[in-house]
Every structure is written in C-alpha cells, then in structure tokens.
Amino acid sequence: MGKLILLRPMEIEDAEKFVELINDEELRQYLSLVLPINKYAEENWIKNNTNKLDVVNFSIETLDGVLIGGTGLKDIDWINRSAEFGIGIFDKRYWNKGMGTEATRLMLKYSFEYLNLNRIYLRAYEFNKRAIRVYEKCGFLIEGKERQARYIKGKYWDVIRMSILADDYWRNFESQV
C-alpha cells in the first residue's frame, strides 16, 4: 500500500470494470490491444495468468476502493532474475495524479525486495510521453528503440525500450518507496 493507491491480487470480478475502461479508444492506443475486448476474454486472461509461474498481476485501487488499473510482471526469468513490467491506469479520471508513479515504485519495491529480481524492463510507445516521464522518474533508463514497431491511426511509431537494475533501485530509490 502506498499513500495514494494499493496493489492487490487481480480477481475475476475485476474483469467487468476493466472491460468498461479498456474499451475506450483513447486509452487503448497506449496498450498493446488493437481490438476491443469483452468480459469473457478478460476473465480468461485473468484466469490463465493466475496459475503461471512467470507472471504476477495486481489490480490498482485508490485507497477508497476504486479500481483504476492494473500492473504486473510477465516473462519472469527466475534464473537470470529479470521480468517485463507493465502498467495501465485505465480510469482516465486518475491520470496525472501520481497514481502511475506510485504503482510503478511499489512494483519495483516488490520486484527487487521480495522477488529478488535483478532487472526489470519495459516497452513504451514513443508518443506516450507521460509514461516515459514516469519511468524515468522511477529510475528506468532508455536502452534503445524498436524502429517503427507500432502502427496506429495511419502512422508508424518507435517503441522505446527501458530498464532498471537492482543496483539502480537500491542506490536511488530505497528510501522513496
């Protein structure tokens, strides 16, 4: 739990609210989704990821219990101690309020202090300046880009690759989380 939000295990009951929020066209451009989703597909996604050993997902709630998004790690490599990070504040009413930054910091704390991972990496679309700023604020560094790897609304965009190492986390953020 942070000062603004709490992370809790994702539940099947979250699917209905996620579908309502994710099917917004403006939001979907920031996700890897192109097609709208339905409740059945979202419930299956939650169920299928619950039992995987290389995936950890959390729902993001405000302290007063409003479900606003999700975050997690996928492709957890327990030998090389790395994972891909993802986050979405799906409820646009909570954009630009520090919720994404706090959720990212809480996930880094969980990743490095509890899972003993060494490297967390992510991909961000170059047009998503808000997300890139959050990641940089949380200690992620740009590693490179995948040129023209995302097509949306008639244009190709680069995908920015970023990562943070445990050493970076312990050096810079231990007291901030």
**Major sheet size, sense and barrel closure:** 7 strands, mixed
Topology order in helix (H) and strand (E) letters = EHHHEEEHEHEEH
Number of E-state strands: 7
Distance between the termini: 10 Å
Give the helix level as a range of percent: 25-40%
Strand content: 25-35%
Structural class: alpha+beta
Low confidence ranges: none
Query: What integer value in Å does the Rg equal?
Result: 16 Å
**How many helices?**
6
- Mean pLDDT across all amino acids: 94
Q: If strands are numbered along the chain, what order do they take across the biggest sheet?
A: 1-2-3-4-5-7-6
Q: Rough shape? A: globular
Structure, explained:
With 177 residues, this protein is an alpha+beta fold. Helix content is 32%, strand content 34%. The chain is built from six helices and seven strands, in the order βαααβββαβαββα. The chain has helices spanning 14-22, 25-28, 39-50, 99-114, 129-137, 166-172; strands spanning 5-9, 56-62, 67-77, 82-89, 119-125, 141-152, 155-165. Strands 1-2-3-4-5-7-6 form a seven-stranded mixed beta sheet, with helices on both faces. A hairpin with a 4-residue loop joins strand 3 (67-77) and strand 4. Helix 1 (14-22) crosses helix 3 (39-50). It is globular. The mean pLDDT is 94.
